[in-house]
Amino acid sequence: MSKENKDFVKEVTSREDDYSQWYLDVILKTEMVDYAPVKGCMVIRPYGYNLWENMQARLDKRIKDTGHKNAYFPLFIPESLLQKEAEHVEGFAPEVAWVTQGGSEKLAEKLVVRPTSETIICSMYARWIQSWRDLPVLINQWCNVVRWEKTTRPFLRTSEFLWQEGHTAHRTEEEAQEETLKMLEVYRDFVENDLAIPVIRGRKTDREKFAGALKTYTIEALMGDGRALQAGTSHNLGQHFAKVFDITFLDQDDQLKYVWQASWGVSTRLIGAIIMVHGDDRGLKFPPVVAPVQVVIVPIMPKKAKEQVLDKAGELLDKHKDKFRLEIDERDYSPGWKFNEWEMRGVPLRLEIGPKDLEKGQVVLVRRDTGEKLFVKEEDLEDNLDTILEDIQKNMFQKALDFREENTSCCNDYQEFQNIIAEKKGLIKANWCGREDCEEKVKDQTKATIRCIPLEGEGKGEGNCICCGQEAREKVYFGRAY
Description:
The longest helix is centred in the C-terminal third of the chain and has 26 residues, at 381-406. The protein has helices spanning 3-10, 19-29, 46-65, 79-83, 86-92, 118-128, 173-193, 240-245, 269-278, 306-320, 335-344, 355-360, 381-406, 414-424, 436-446, and strands spanning 33-35, 42-44, 69-70, 76-78, 97-102, 105-113, 137-146, 160-170, 200-203, 215-222, 228-238, 248-250, 256-258, 260-267, 295-299, 326-328, 349-353, 362-367, 373-377, 408-410, 427-432, 449-454, 474-479. The chain has 15 helices and 23 strands. The chain folds into 3 domains: 10-278, BirA Bifunctional Protein, domain 2 (2-Layer Sandwich); 295-388, Anticodon-binding domain (Rossmann fold), CATH 3.40.50.800; 408-479, 2-Layer Sandwich (Translation Initiation Factor IF3). By secondary structure, the protein is α+β, with helices and mostly antiparallel strands.
């Protein structure tokens, strides 16, 4: 490796030396994000926002394919609406930002800057829903929310972030539960197949569920440092909010009834998940399905052949740009510097072309995930791009799945449990009695929380609780989390 390339790589801290610093180095150096003048907020730069747009478009299609429609609700929520639901208020109180003055006048009623939209959406549903014929209501919105976080990290936890939040109203409890699990599966499909991140589907404990929800379901992912991340949630709200906001309908039997509700959401936190699951010491590594740039064309341009090489690079771009997301790097840097730059930026595939390649009618393709170099005839390029990008996507998912399996332990002894959490990290599958005091004790002593009760094995705890030794009710996943 040349000195130039070594110096470039040194700009990113090794993950082993300091994982948190590695994360910050990577997102700042690759121009994904920058710090905003407001503490705890971030500026998503074009490269990072391009990734979000790709993710948003693919998830939005899935949401619409299930019959939901997009709408938009106000950013500001009157205090009186939030105060209507005590449990909801208590859950969000520490994170709420208030508006108390407009212009030079003090407001007659304080306004909450949206931390989530249940209250204002429910107030509107109470107006719109009159009859069973008005149901179901299937609405989603893409927006920003504000939660005044004490400790922040770009993408993972910021005072303002972007997300989508679905809010639905149904005639029966069964329909609301079906909706809740349906959207959880939409999230699983999106995160696993588009982001190449394996997840565990499960139910949150009562202690960890959403404030005001009957049940909360989650998809949990394991990051590269062994910590868990809640990647998306779907909530069965029951009739809780319906009763608070008087959302009633006249049913077919001429009885006035409360609707059953569900809500669900994912956020720009998923960008952080992509970075931490797939990134390495050389920087980002993006799954081709959502990568801002799928193929970067790097022309090798000695002075004598510069014009011919650039002409061919432009020709290749024009020929394949309708099918793939391509970019040409014509900047006046050495090829080695560009190779490192685009590796750090996580582009799945690099296409090199120089004078010798022109003579042979070929290009050189280099994979970001494996470093493999391939020589491909120009006429075979499109088929090869298709095949290789698809293989990169599958390989990235499999590598992440292997990592999760290697870092998931089964444990029946509490001392062993504590040792694993302290030294090995990762996820631990263990028995739990179902009592909240045991859940709290484990968290207080180890900082590990119950990430979820897996849907595939819900209610099938065998043996004794990892904490108290009493008969287990469920087998759950524990882990330290972001």
